[in-house]
Each structure stands twice: as C-alpha cells, then as structure tokens.
Amino acid sequence: MKFAKNDRFTYNGITVNVLDILGDGGQGEVYLVEENGQKYAFKIYKDEVSSDFRYNLKNNIQKGSPSANFLWPKEFIEFTDGDCGYMMDLRGKEYVSFVSYLTGKNRFKSKRLLLNWCIELVKSFKDLHERGYSYQDLNDGSFFLNPDNGKILICDNDNVTADKRSLGVLGKMRYMAPEIVRGDKDRITGERQMPDVHSDRFSLAVILFLALCLGNPFEGEKLKDYVIVDEKAEYEMFGSNPIYIYNEQDSSNRPIRGYHTAVLKRYPALPSYIKAAFQKTFVDGLKDRENSRTTELEWIRLLCRYRDELITCECGHEYIYGFYEKKPNAKCPGCHKPTRAFCTLIIGKGKVLLEPGKYLYRSHIDKYSGDYNEPIGKVITNKNNPSLWGIKIKLEHPILVKDRSGHEKEIAKDGVIPIIDGLKIRFEEKAIGEILANK
After folding, report:
1. Cα 185 → chain centroid
2. What is the pLDDT of residue 244?
3. Which terminus of the chain, N or C, has fewer Cβ atoms within 10 Å?
4. What sign does the CA torsion over 304, 308, 313, 314 have?
C-alpha cells in the first residue's frame, strides 16, 4: 500500500492525515502524518511481514523504549488488506545522519561532544541489552547526531528483538560480526548463529571506530587484492579472513597511505586504552566472541576517561594530556607549543583535567551512577579576572572544601569552588576529591 500527499487513513476510530513522504527504503516507506494536531512519522511495510515479526513489534511497543535515545515504535497499525506499519515520533531538524558526519558534511563542534555522542551510543545499547534485547542490525544508517550538543537518536528499531531470537535479519555487510557473515553454527543449538548481544558488541565497536577514526577497521591493504569489492571480496574481508588494520600480530592489512588519510591521522592520537579496547574486540574477539569483546560498561569507562583528560591548546587543538600513557604530551600535536600548565581534579581512581568549559558529571561523584552525561559542575572563569578559574556547582546540597593550611569553607549548592592547588573537596559523604597543579 502506498499513500499520496493529503491521503487519509483511520485506525481505532482515529483519522490520520498524510502530509508528505519522508523516505523510501527497501523495507518500507516512511510518511509524515498528522494525528489529532500532532505530527508523527509512519512507516508502512512494502511486503507482507511474518506473524513472528508482527508479534515482536507489538511486544516491543507494549514494553516501551529502553531510553529516550531510541525513536521507538509507538503504535502498531494493521489494515484490512493485511498491510501493516507503525507510528513513531519525528526526528528533530537539529539531528543529522551519522553518514553525513562520516562524509564530512557535518562535524561535531568539539572532540568532547563527539565523545559525549559515543558515550550516549554505548549507554543506549547497555540499556537495550539489559532489557533482554539485541539490536541485530547496527550500521551507519541507524544513528543520528546533534553536532551542537553531542546527543543521539537511534532509528530502525523495528528489528530489535529478544536476544538470540531470529526474525531473519542478519545485518549489513561491513558492520556484521564475522561469525554472522560466515553463518557459523551456534555452539549450543547447533543451528546457524544469529545476531545477539555478542555480535551487537562487535558491530558497536565498528561504529565507534568509524566515529573516532572515520574509517572501517577491516579495510586496509587487503583492498588491493581485489579488482572490485564485490560479494566475494566482502565475504573474505569481513567474514572468512577479517584482519584488523592495526592488528599487533599481523601487519598485512594496514591502512593505505594516500587513501585512508583520516584513519592514519586520527588513530595515532587515540589513548592507548582505547586502542587496547579495539584490539581486544577486533583480534581476540574474533576467536572468543563471548568473553573477548569489549563490553558496554568497559567502553563507557574508557570513553569517559578519554573525555576527562582532554586539553585544549590556545590554537584550538584538542588532545589528550596522556595521564595513562608511557609519556605524556609535552607539546600540542597541532601547533607544537608546550602543553600549558593546568590543574587536575583527582577523585576516586579518576583524573579530570580542569579547563574552562570542562564538565563534572554525576558519575564522577557516584561510581554506581549511570548518568555519564548529567553535569553536576562546570569549569568557568571569573568575569572580572579571567585568570581565576572555578567549578560552578549544580548540586542540591552545599559542599565542604579545605585548603592546604587546613582552613575549611562551605560552598553553597549553587556556588563556585575555586581551582586552587591542594584544595580538598567533599562533594558527598563518600566522594572526596583533591585539586592538584601540574607543575
């Protein structure tokens, strides 16, 4: 069934006006519609869908979305001729496609916002998996981003299903886990391995690599072996013989100079712990899919650490200081000027490099919190004296600070903590921090 502009249809006694077509894909068409004065997106399937697919979609709607980051189906609609579809909220105009980011059409305003997006991406799939779902079809068309604030929207959620339950969807080549591409046998059932949490984690790592490096982690020198990248070539590169481009034991598939320029520029700038997480998933995880793929919680902790140690040079270049590297960055990789002096907030096992615009998050003071992007403080400068910096606090209670001389002071819940070397801060009963200068 197809609709034209100004067509109408009804369900459950409700009239829906078709305003325009938003997209036409292989699975179905998506329309802009209006219901009771409210605009929505409506997807209708081109072909008849199975009873299992219908049941799964209805069940997902009934259970509700794992988080607000998903453009989750809201209402299942069946027509008398057997066609069906579903209503969902519209994507805001401030969101652009992940593909537009990969092609350079859109860019995040800062590396911090890119990392915010990555953290939200991983947290969304953590929420999804904890609800017993697997996404099964992660690819570059599944995500949208707001380049101004790092927020995310995840679409195409009609294929989400209970973990290890098959709806016949395998995924998209270049993003699928190799065992799914090859059609390996499940070690328990003996049947074909279907997408699940473990294959999701592989695909998630591919998306993160694309986001951070702007290249596919398995496309390197091996591309030269093929006149054309057809199905056979893709099967070999991503299924039967996948070789991670930065495999520490196999250098046969390194990025091609002059072709994979973005990867060659961006990958060396990654922290060693991020590189290790990719190595674990893309090398060890090929052999042990259940135990050697970086988990969502591991990714979140590493990405938060990455965000915390970012420093911004006067030239505008953002880079890691290198708290966890063998040798910190003594110079800016962009302009090569010496890394400026700074202060660090030590809290628990973490280190937050303090500079104007840097945020403290709920997860900094509560290790059990899942609010990795909820600010509870921001580094600001004094309006009258820009050389004086402080942390503007956003907590519902006052906090106690003590300087090196032992003098204590209570900071109001909406007050500012001065950034002073040796200052100890009690954010909460079990959250004690200390500011130290990098001398």
Report:
1. 30
2. 98
3. C
4. positive
